[in-house]
Amino acid sequence: MKAPLFEFPSYQYEIDDWEFKKKGLLNRINNGKYIRTNLQIFETDRQTNNKKYIHYLEEFLRPELLKFCQEAKVNCQMTDAWCVRYYKGDHQIVHNHRGWGFSGILYVEFDPSIHTPTCFVAPWQDPTTDTTSLAFPQNVKEGTLFIAPSFTHHFVHPNTGDERRVVIAFDLLPNLPNHQSINSFRECDNINLS
Length: 194
Prior knowledge:
Layout: E1 11-14, H1 18-30, E2 43-44, H2 54-60, H3 62-72, E3 76-86, E4 92-95, E5 102-109, E6 119-125, E7 132-135, E8 144-149, E9 154-156, E10 165-174, H4 183-187
Antiparallel strand pairs: 1-8, 2-3, 3-10, 4-9, 5-8, 5-10, 6-7, 6-9
């Protein structure tokens, strides 16, 4: 009998009232300063936005983030958020965000007939073939929100279309229990051990 030890936790949601919300979101992100470097084959405001829309995005995604927190059984906070724009030929190399927490992708401008969703690399080899497995979120369209562990390697295939592909990415860090928090050591400062 199959007895799984591990599970790969990923979550997918559709944003309610997307067409209405998209207009306000685009107004906010289109006013940003986007850069392209030798290491980035895409445009992003990650280095220039000074995390200025974290609170806006938390409110924008509040219903979906609450569902995620309930399903994942975790309380967390958004620690970073940025926009990425992919024009024809642009892509993203394999990377991850950190060793713990969760990362999300909101598909803002995305045409499923010409764009591909972010591709995720399985965190372990297939035991029967010793190969690396790749997977895409399913049924992605504008307004799709996908959340996965931050340690997961992922990448974006080159944009082959003339229409740009726009996503907002963000990181969520769980609130640690007191016994794991650095603040718990500060509480001990006032304890008299003599």
